[in-house]
Amino acid sequence: MAESLFKILEKEQKSRFLTFLKTKNKVKKTRNIELFKAQEAGNTKNLENEIGPNAFRGLKKRLKDSLIEFLSNELIKNEVTQEIKIIKELVVARKLMDLGCYNDGFKMLLKLKDKANSIDHFSLINEIYHTLIEYSYLDSAPNQDELYNSLIQNNQAQLNQERLNMAFAAVKKHIANAENINKFISDVYKRFGINHNEGFNFKSLYQLCVIANNQGAYSNDYYSVNLFFEEKVKEIIGSSLDSPKYRFYKIDLFLILSNIYLRKRAFGKSLNYLDLANQELLICSSDFRKTRRVQLETIKALCWHYSGDIDDAINILSNHKGSDLQLAHSQLALASFCFQKGELRESKKIITQYHRSDAFYEKRLGRDWVLNKIYIEVILSVELGEIELAESRMNSLIRRYGTFLKTQHQIHVLPFIKLVRYYCRYPEEVTTIKFAQKIEKAIQWKPTNQEDLFFMSIYAWLKSKMQKRNVYDVVLELVNA
Q: Is the pTM of this model over 0.70?
């Protein structure tokens, strides 16, 4: 648990935490600061050996308790200040009502209602309505019918948000095991009574967008993803619901919509959403901007790449060089671009930076990233004449992911791997009618506009061998067919 708590601490908070420890320490020999610094360095063994395991466990627990106390104070100070203020003022307003100061009490309660509305705190709004309705028999009270109708609307808004929260959680928990993604999503909506026509804020729209993106990712069918909520996005932009408190959700919503349209091959729409995300990022903190900048530029580079501008796509991602996990998706895209341009050594140099096990990367980056990395490794190894390495990666792919690759939405992959193996053994046959017939029998293609964008890019390499053409030309031909 202590390790998890350390991850919450931001850079500037660490110095404040050390000051906090110093003020708490009553005894000079307390070694909690020493333990904190050892934890930061990732080496606590020396301290444990020095003071013994029992004393070390006690010291670690005391440091953890101090960290919880510090973080709770920080989070309350930074994140729930408005909520606490409203609660305190609500207590005062109720006391005013008890003492018969009704005009001042009603005035204060109505102001508090607006404040609670501004942070979408439905339960606090309910408490305020409860007090207003309790005293609504008075002549100076707001209209009873209006109060009652507002209370019902607030309850409905709270129920809508909880329905979305439940749907969001249910999808994240079960989507990996769903055989029919579209039916699964539809059943989740029905189960929790989600009405497509209800108004949503940017947080709930973001949740719906994540569900839609998961639907496309797990089914490998972004073409069929239903963006029924997109009109709501347009309605909310610039409206009273376009609140700064939802800015982070709004940016992530735009980025996910951009990714979905990229995968649908609507590159213009994808770039439009990137522009909207970028406008919002300009007024965010530098730390948040950094976390989203790489994602934004990766999607932009992919749009340019598939629109025929490979050089600019490579240039934009070349600024992100490194083996950091945060850069993993951009680096994988860059390796693919370099491969398609014929810069094989550069592509291999990028890929080999990520040299840990598939299990390590799957845990941190997800299965899709690992699969795409293996696909690139296989065709890159074949192209460089490293056939044994290609065979090894294909064996690893089938051994670890064979069952998953037999599912309906991954049905192309295993036949494709068999064709690559055949090509490795009989390269002279790749341009023959016999090989073309093998492909025709092995791979059951969807209509062109429904095929997965990234898989088509991998397949383009094999087709380029069959036709003795440039890989990137074939990629553009398949994508824009």
A: no
